Every structure is written in C-alpha cells, then in structure tokens.
Amino acid sequence: MIKKEEYKIALVLPRGPMRSSAISQAGSEHLGLGYIASTLRAKGYNVKILNFQIQDFLLFEEGIDEEYDISPKAMAKEIFEFKPNLVGISTTGITLDNSLLISKHLKEINSEIRVLLGGHQASVTDQDILAKENYVDFVIKGEGEKSFLELADQLRIGEVQFENIEGLTYRQDGEVRCNPMGNHLELDELPMPARDDLEIIKERINIKQARISTSRGCLHACTFCIDPSLYRKRIWYAHSAKRVVDEMELLNKKYDIEHFWINDDNFIVATKESKQRAWDIGNEIMKRDLKIHYRVFFRSDVFKNGTDDGLLKHLYDSGLRIALVGFESGSPIRLKRFKKNTTVDLNLKVAKLIKENNLGLQIGFIMFDPLSTFEDLRKDIEFLYNIDEMYLVYNFIQNLDVFHGSEIANYLEAEGLLNERIDYKSPYRVYRFKDDRVGKLAKAMENIFDSETIRRDKILQKINIFEFPNLSEYVMSSNDTDLINKVNKFDDVRKETVKKLNDINYEFMIKAIDLAENEFDLTVFENMKNKVIEEQNYLYSNLLNQYTDLEMNTKTGDEDNGKKF
C-alpha cells in the first residue's frame, strides 16, 4: 500500500483551440481543479496542477503576439515528468479531443497510470466515453471533490468498491457502470481552493486580480444549457457571507489581490435568502474595510420590474464594479425558445439599472441560432444598440453552441436540423439553419472574429468597464486638479468612441442583414466588412493611444509593487 504523501495525483487543464470565449476578462485560473487539489492535499495527497491554458493568458497580458503549439503528446510528456499514479483531466467540448489524446499518450508511456475525466462534457457523455475510449478509466459526473477523494483512497490501498462512489462511471466485469450522483456538497466545509495557477501567473506578471467562487447551481432550465440534463433537480447553494469575505481577505493580504472576478453562474438568485446573503457580503467587506473591487453574474429576472430595493447601490459601496447579465436575445420569440423567463422590456430596465448604479455592464448574447429569422436578427441588433453594447464585435457574432443532452439539441434533432447525431466527440456546431440565408450570414459574421479582433475587443472592454473606471476613481479621490481634468477629457473621448463604434457596427449589421435577406453577395459583404474594420481600428487605436498617455501621466512611479496609479 502506497503512503498518501507518495501517491501522486496530477490535475490537468488541457490547452484547446482559440475560441471567441477568449474575450473573458477573468484570467486563466481554474478553481474547479483548485478545489479538488485542496481537498486532496488536506488529506495528505501529493497533488500537482498542470494548467496548460495559462500561457495564452500570460502572452496576452504581456502584449506578445506569439503563436506556439503544445501538442497532446507534449502535454502528456510534461504530465508524466511528475510520475503520477492518478491523472484527473477537466474537459469541455473543445478540449475533449486533446484530453483523449493525452490519455492515450499517458497510457502508452505507462499503462499503470489511471486516468479520470471530469467536467460538463465528460459528465453528460460518460457512458459513451468509457464504452469507446479504452485509455480512460473513470469519469466523475458533477461535483468532484468528495468522489475524487474516495476514488483516490480506494486506488491507493488497492480496494475496488467503486459502486459506493457517488457520480462515478467505471468499468467492471466488462461492463460500463454508472453510479447515481449524490446530494450537493456543503460548500463551507470545503477547504479554500489551491492557488497554484495564481502563484505561477504572479511569478511572471504582478497581477492584482483573481477568480473566486461563492455559489454553485441554478434554479432555471435554459434550453441551451447543459446543466438541466445533468442536474435534474434545480438547486442553488452557496458559501456563507463570512466564508466569502474570509477568502477575499486572505487573497488580498497574501497575494495583494484588489479585484475579484466572481465566476458563479448566479451570484444572486430571485430568493429572499440569496439577496440577503449578497447584502451581508457587502456589509462584511465594508466592516473589514477591504479596499477591493469585484464582478458578479446574475440574471435579469432577479430584479422584477427592474427594481432592486437599493441592493446594487449597497454592493457598489462595498466594491462591486461590473455586472454580467445573460440577456441572450432582444427577440421575444427567441427568449421564449431559450426559456429565459424574462422579457425584452425587463432586460432593458435591468441594463439601465446597472448603469444608473455606475456599474460596468458585460453581457451574454447569442446572435444566431438555427431557428433565427431576419426579424429576430433586427430585434437583436436593435436591443444591443439601445443598451450601447454593439461597440464590441463579440456581442453580435456569436452562434449558438449546442451541447450534448441539452433540450435544444433534442429539439433540433427532432426538427431534422442536425448534420449528424451528437455524440461525445461532436463539435458545438453540428446543425443547419432553418433559413439557409441566415446560416450564410452567421458563418460570415463569425469569420470576422479572428485573433486580432479578439484582442481589440478585450482591450476595449477592459478599458471601458474596468481599468478606466478604477483609474478615474483613484484620480477623483486626489487633489490633483490637472490630473482630474485629463481624466475628464479622456472620459469624453471614451464615451464618444463607444458611441461611434456602437453606431458604425449597428449600421454595418443593418446592411449585412439586408444583403443576406435578398441575395448574399460575398464580395459585397467583404467590402463592407473591410470598411467597417478600418473604421473600428482607427477608433480603437486612437482610444488606446490616449489611454496609454493618460496612464503614463497618472503613474506614481511606484513600479516595484505593481501599482499603476
């Protein structure tokens, strides 16, 4: 029997292809692996996290345009250097191929290594994976902390009683067996997540931002979401307010973290208890006098009639600076199809409420789905224009991702709109559009979003809702009249730039929709596209240059501790 401290466990996040999700501002930490690592370490296990997505984040933050390739074989080789007994790989649809190849290469190096997959993609396709992929030994569905620990304990001592491990899918006697998932975990009983990723990042760049998780689950069942097929019982559960702020305070003092990207799917839900918890978190932050900022996710239907009883102002006072809301569409028909439980009018009111409380707005939006009509598209861009969110290309190019087991996947299959039956290896776009003209426009629009556009969008959004508001807040609290004037002058430029981008992108989309509805001429579209990209680049470059000058003027010179202003 191997001692716990000698039993090595590698937790892996594979690198995948470039996706438009690169617009995420929240960095490359993986808290799911962090929670599993800390749970295992608390019981004495030797655990290493290998996050192969960190390099992309570092290169972006350093402003380096460098293409590099980490093949699955190279990733497997690096994993094996740790000499692990058990390897856990977190998968998504776009990293599953790499995950399977890593498993294959590891087994070829040493067939005794046990390989476990987790994450949403593996959770909903667990039986297919184990039936067809001999290089994978186990899948854990849903929450992994408790089940991973129990599996490690059994493998280490050589016992095989897998039927008692909740959510585990495994092979036994030549058959694939699937254990039922258990009840949700009591989150406050989990140790705080390991911060290996954060420490690696801080060795290269002195960032002052980190991810944090304060709740899990969702009370809703959007048709495009994978969760309802995995968690039939809709439930939301959370860390206590004290536990949340304990972690914030620890990260603030230990790593000098000043901004927290709270990555809960729903920081607030439409219950009295949830809203009280959010209020208590604000109180706890202010009671401890933590000088921090944070970003949260919530749904628009949290605030019925677009009112919040002062909650957003209270959270702003405690440091909330950005709110991300999944509006998804400006078409009433599409909102019903997605089962969003909201209306266009409520979405408009909530967008206004957020901005009235001086919060930066991020949005989730699905511009195209297989059933979209031209009427839907026009309503979508009208909505985006009215909330000033067409300044980002990302917001009006997104095609629907269709996940295995989701309600919308089953519907599209019944309607005959799938190119092939979705299985565990399927990409997210295996569908046809009901109106082929919409499909041609959707493909042409998504092709616009290359690495250069991703970079520009990310920097634009960062300046607009994150960096400049923080800089402005700092300057306005000073007595430097000259700097205050410069900040006010740049603020005028920022607002005008966002307005102009909103206008030119809206006009471009109107013309593109008209073109597609009549006779889609790719040459005409390309000419339109090139013209608008030229205008976008000019406005972007001008804003970035002026912001860079403003930063230089507001630096204190205290570069050693990473302070910008």
UniProtKB/TrEMBL annotation:
Cofactor dependence is on: [4Fe-4S] cluster
Key words of the record: Iron, Iron-sulfur, Metal-binding, Methyltransferase, S-adenosyl-L-methionine, Transferase
Record-linked Pfam families: B12-binding, Radical_SAM
Q: Which PROSITE patterns has this protein been placed in?
A: B12_BINDING
Q: Tell me which InterPro entries the record gives.
A: BchE-like, Cobalamin-bd, Cobalamin-bd_sf, Elp3/MiaA/NifB-like_rSAM, Methyltransferase_Class_B, rSAM, rSAM_horseshoe, rSAM_sf
Q: Where is the B12-binding domain?
A: 15-162
Tell me which Gene3D superfamilies the record gives: Cobalamin-binding domain, tm_1862 like domain
Superkingdom of this protein's organism = Bacteria
> What's the protein name?
Radical SAM superfamily enzyme YgiQ (UPF0313 family)
